[in-house]
Structure formats: C-alpha cells, structure tokens
Amino acid sequence: MPQPRVIAELAEERLEPSDKGLPARAAGLTVREFLASGPRLSEFWTPLLVLDEQALAHNAAVIQEWATSHGFDLMPHGKTTMAPALWQRQLDAGAAGLTLATPWQVRTARSFGVARIMLANTLVAPAGLAFIASELADEGFAFSCWADSVATVEAMKQALPDAPLPRPIDVLVELGAAGGRTGARSLDEAVGVAQRIAASRSLRLAGVAGYEGSLGHDRSPAALAAVRDYLGDLLELRAAVRPLVGDRELIVTAGGSAYLDVVADVFAPAMAADAAAGLPASWILRSGASLLHDDGFYHGISPLDAGAGADARAGAAARSGGATLISAMRGYARVVSHPEPGLALLDGGKRDFPYDEGLPVPFGRAARLGADEEPLVGASVTAVNDQHAFLRSDAALPVSIGDVVSLGLSHPCTAFDKWRWIPVVEHRGSDRVVDLVRTFF
C-alpha cells in the first residue's frame, strides 16, 4: 500500500469558502495557520456543530477504563465520526483497533495506517475483497469481517482474486435474532456457516460476532431480557465453534453503546472460564458512540450516563470509579424568523443536525455564538425541515431575531456526516477554538 497519511498532515490542508460554518477569513489558510490566528467561536457561522475537548478527553478515558477493567479489548466503531484524529485519540488511549462498516471506510482507515480493523459486515464486493487481499501482504495488518450465511461464504470465495492470498481472510460468524438485523437466525444455521468457513482455503474461521442493540430501544425489563437471551445464544455459538478453531485465539465480539453492561454481565462467566482453562480468546467491545455520547438517545439508555438509572450505573460503572460519560457535541442555530409568540424558526435542520433518534433539545439562548447563555425553559424543537428547526413553546418564547440557540443532539452516528470540518472548543462555555476535526464521508 502507499505510505500511509499521518494525522499531522491534516493541519496542512487548506480551508475553502465552501467549508460549512467556518469564518470567511479562514478560506485559503491551512488549518495550522487558521488555528494559530486564535479563532473564536463567535466568528463562526450558523448552523454549527461544535465539539468539546475536555469532554472528548474525559469520555475516551472513561470508556477505555471501563472496557479494560471488564476484560474487553475496545475496538470502537469508526463509522460514527469518520474522523482519523478522533480514531487516533482512542487508539492512543489504548483501543486495540477500529471497527468499520463498509469497504470504503476500511480503505480510508488503512490510508491512515490503522493496523487492526474489524469490518462489522459481510464483504462480498469483488473490488473490496481484492483490496483486502492486497493489504494482507502487510504482515502487520490484522483484518476480520463477518458472514451470516453459507451463501455469503460462497459469494466471498467466488469473488476473491484467482491468485493465492498472502494469508486467509479471518471471518467471524454473525448470529442474529428474529426481529433483529443481519445474522444467522438459528444456532444450527450459524454452525453450518462456521463449518463452511473452516473448510475454505481462502478464509479462516476466527470467532463469533453479534449486535444486540437492534433487539431493544430502551432499558425496559422486556428489552433487557431480549438482549440477555441473545447474548446467551451467542455464547452457545462460541462453544459450538470452539472445536473448529482449535487452539487458536477465538474472537467473541458484541456490544454497542447501549447495553455494554449487559454484555459484560452475561460474558463474565465464560471469560473467566476461558482464562482458567488457558484457552486463548479475545473479547471485543465495539462501542462507537461512547466517545461523543449525546444529550438524547444514549443519554437515556447508556449505563455510563446518569440518565440510565441508578441500578444500571451501579453495576456498570463500579469498576471505572463511578465515572460517567458526558455529551461532547452541541449544535448551534440562529433565530431567523419569529412569526408567532410561541414559534421561532432556527437556521439549522436535517442537513445540519441528527434527527433520526430524537429531535434537537434547546438548552439556552445567547446574543451571539460563544456568549453566556440564558436557559430556554419550556421550549422544544417540534420538527425539522432541510434547513429549519421549529422552536415552540406554550408561552411566548424569550428570543429575538438573530439570537443563537444551543441545541443538545441525539445520536452521534448521524451527526458527523453533515460536516467536513468541526470546530473544537477547549471546554463547554468556552469561546476559544483549539482544533478543527476533519471528517471523511
């Protein structure tokens, strides 16, 4: 592969007039030059997505400590941000590698030299398989992908280049569940997939994988029971495929950002048994939203957030010093219309902020970006259009045309794809911009 890019090179990229949210004076400057000029948040244009450096550092430490203390390797899902600088932050904090979702994302990560990647998806596109085959010539590169059917395995084998591979592609059998997403729908079917992988010369059975997050959307007893039952099935699959893996390391991976406490609780006895028996195993957590966290969906469901309830926090955070995650992202939009006392229109919408897991939550208003805020009590965003948000209240809204409204956001996985450069302030409430995060979407 070509010489990988390094994160420092991003500081030499030139900013353009088309870069959304940046001050006009930034155009033509390199990122390094712009940051050296001492930019302030008040210079930026709305709508705007802003990151919090202090919160990023805090969250990276919390999730890494939690994973390590519970016996997991952390391979955070890089699709959340597609930001190499944020990937590197977690790798530097101790993450074992990255999880990604598409061959193109894998190619992007490889261009920055990421040495260990799990593709949490099937890989059947001939071009993607050819790329991975060529990358496996680098003995320092570790790669694995998933398969959930015999048809998938056969499609992979047929699409691989005719030339012998430098080494087999590691494949994990994905177990699903009725009503879930992908994944084999029964244990017998999953074992059949494992057997077909193990019989292949170009593929190597590496372990088992699954995603429990699609089985629940809250922390109700029913959702937690469904997740727990599914994870138990995943352990059954692990036991069934162990003879096919032999004395090699067996990977077991689960865990988004919503039910990591349940994953740890269900897996703990099996992890202890493997350790006692001296069986080589790698238990991988793929939490991708934990670095950013949010003020919506994950705020309410993550066991590492106060919103999830005391019982969940007590069990999940006990071995991380009780530390909890905090939102590291916030949106800002400006009042551009106030046609009724209880209605104001903001200049940010679907093309600027996530809305699929909850609408933005208004926190406060200020006369300008970076200024002290006054809380917006009783206000809510009730709808978003492409470039507008509807701010409503039963009482008259205490906002004026031109005011800036700060917005708590829900679901970091659909926040970053709308931005090329995202400013980072030193901490919440600071006007000082200390970095620009580059995304690759």
From TrEMBL:
Domain of life: Bacteria
Species name: Agromyces albus
UniProt xrefs under Gene3D superfamilies: Alanine racemase, D-serine dehydratase-like domain
Signal peptide: none
Name this protein carries in UniProt: Amino acid deaminase
Domain (D-serine dehydratase-like): residue spans on this chain: 328-426
Record SUPFAM superfamilies: PLP-binding barrel (SSF51419)
InterPro entries with a match to the protein in the record: D-amino_acid_metab_enzyme, D-ser_dehydrat-like_dom, D-ser_dehydrat-like_sf, PLP-binding_barrel
Taxonomic path: Bacteria, Bacillati, Actinomycetota, Actinomycetes, Micrococcales
A Pfam family it matches: D-ser_dehydrat
